[in-house]
Amino acid sequence: MFTEAAPGVFSFDHDFVEGHNGIVLGQRTALAIDGGNYPKDGQAMADFIRARGFVADRLALTHGHGDHILGAAPLAGGEVFAHALTPGVMRRQIAGWAARWGQAQTQVAQGLCWPTVTYSDELSLDLGGKTVRFIPTPGHSEDGVSAWVEEDQVLIGGDAVVTGIVPAIGDGDGRALEKSLRRLAQLKIKVLIPGHGPLVYGVEATRACILWEADYLAGVRARVVQALAQMLPDAVAAVVSFDEFVGDRLPADRHNMPKRHRNTVEKIITEERNG
Q: 85 to each of 144, 197, 233, 244, how far by Cα in Å?
């Protein structure tokens, strides 16, 4: 399903944990942001772009995790923009994908949509009347970026910002993600397109949503630090409860939410123990 978040700025909803990709249509060219988890995702986006008179050959990646890149092949053919760390994130996953699919690693690698243009700081793309600025937002993954459509004040958050699940840091760093979220909260965002979960509308609502995620990570960390001073590490996760830190904000019966919370807690425990 496509949702027009602002004139010429669309969210494409795919079925991997309420996932979202983005499409920005400028006066000169179109840009797809992420390709989803399955080829049908990228194909639907390519068809959408072509139906509006554009060539579907410009793609930007918010990070290199599978549910954002594995469906991207139909959008390939031109430039693929990504953070300089994204190729490494992609390479680390190839062995696991090859084992899962029963394919040779070289075959898997050849099927991926590899970045052709990389950057370390920010990158701005002028599409003609639409400027998309890619802001590094590490934490969910080391290569994470969020896309800011300046004229429309729309943020395509990637997995730095999620509204349907708790923040995920299994392949990242909780401190870095909290810092990224607090930076994003300074933007005046009229529409938030998260990596996973419902879209959010309005400057105050988007800021509150982003700050909740940052405060969640900070609150979990504070409780972990307190508990580590009082008990053995193996007992800490049990006292950082889902009910206290998430409660009814996210439904416990969707997306295995208590397990996702536990995973975040355990990663923060590891971070604190490792310094």
A: 9, 25, 32, 35
pLDDT of residue 3: 97
Split into its structural domains, the chain has a count of: 1
Q: Is the dihedral of CA 256, 257, 261, 262 positive or negative?
A: negative
> What CATH number does residue 16 fall under?
3.60.15.10
Phi, psi of 156 (to 5 degrees): -100, 100
Listed residue (147, 136, 124, 160) closest to 10, CA to CA: 147
For 177-212, what is each residue's pLDDT tens digit? 999 999 999 999 999 999 999 999 999 999 999 999
CA distance 138 to 191: 21
Q: What is the mean pLDDT of residues 85-93?
A: 97
CA distances for 235 relative to 178, 224, 241, angstroms? 25, 10, 12
DSSP state of 196: B
Full residue range of the structural domain in which residue 242 is found:
2-274
Report helix angle 257-274 to 203-228, nearest 10: 60
Residue position matching structure tokens 């007992």? 235
Please give the C-alpha separations between residue 45 and each of 16, 32, 108, 169, 193, in angstroms, as whole numbers: 15, 7, 22, 28, 16
Locus of tokens 């400028």: 26
List the beta bridge partners of residue 23: 10, 32
Q: pLDDT digit string (tens) for 120-135?
A: 999 999 999 999 999 9
User: Residue 132's closest CA among 210, 212, 219, 62?
Assistant: 62
The token duo for 175 is 């401190």
* Helix axes 257-274 and 174-184, enclosed angle (nearest 10): 110
Return the number of other C-beta atoms located less than 10 Å from residue 40's C-beta. 13
User: Tokens 């001073």 sit at which residue?
Assistant: 229
Scan for tokens 């139909």, then name that residue: 74
